[in-house]
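Figure 6 in text form: structure in, sequence out.
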């Protein structure tokens, strides 16, 4: 059971469906299935959030996992965008300074 873990770029849906089928085949309850599924998930943040939610069926569990994964991905995208924007502003003055130096060297060499 523990040998089946989600691979880094594997979709959450594909992983969950396979893991749940395996858990049901061996007769695990919904809570045990949820626990085993979370243990093998790649995204730690999704596991932390989903572990605290009470689920009454597998469909709710799957939908919550996919929703959390999407929200986390969107947040990470926004954070990356903000960092790139800040880095761009930091780099622009350096580039301008280099360009001025280059122009000055070109002017002096003429």
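Output sequence:
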């Amino acid at each position: 059971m523990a040998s089946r873990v989600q691979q880094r770029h594997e979709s959450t849906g594909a992983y969950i469906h396979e893991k749940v089928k395996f858990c049901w085949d061996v007769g695990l309850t919904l809570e045990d299935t949820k626990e085993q599924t979370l243990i093998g998930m790649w995204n730690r943040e999704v596991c932390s959030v989903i572990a605290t939610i009470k689920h009454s069926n597998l469909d709710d569990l799957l939908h919550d996992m996919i929703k959390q994964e999407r929200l986390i991905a969107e947040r990470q995208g926004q954070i990356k965008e903000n960092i790139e924007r800040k880095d761009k502003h930091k780099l622009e003055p350096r580039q301008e300074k280099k360009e001025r130096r280059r122009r000055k060297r070109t002017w002096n060499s003429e």
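Caption detail: The chain has a mean pLDDT of 84.
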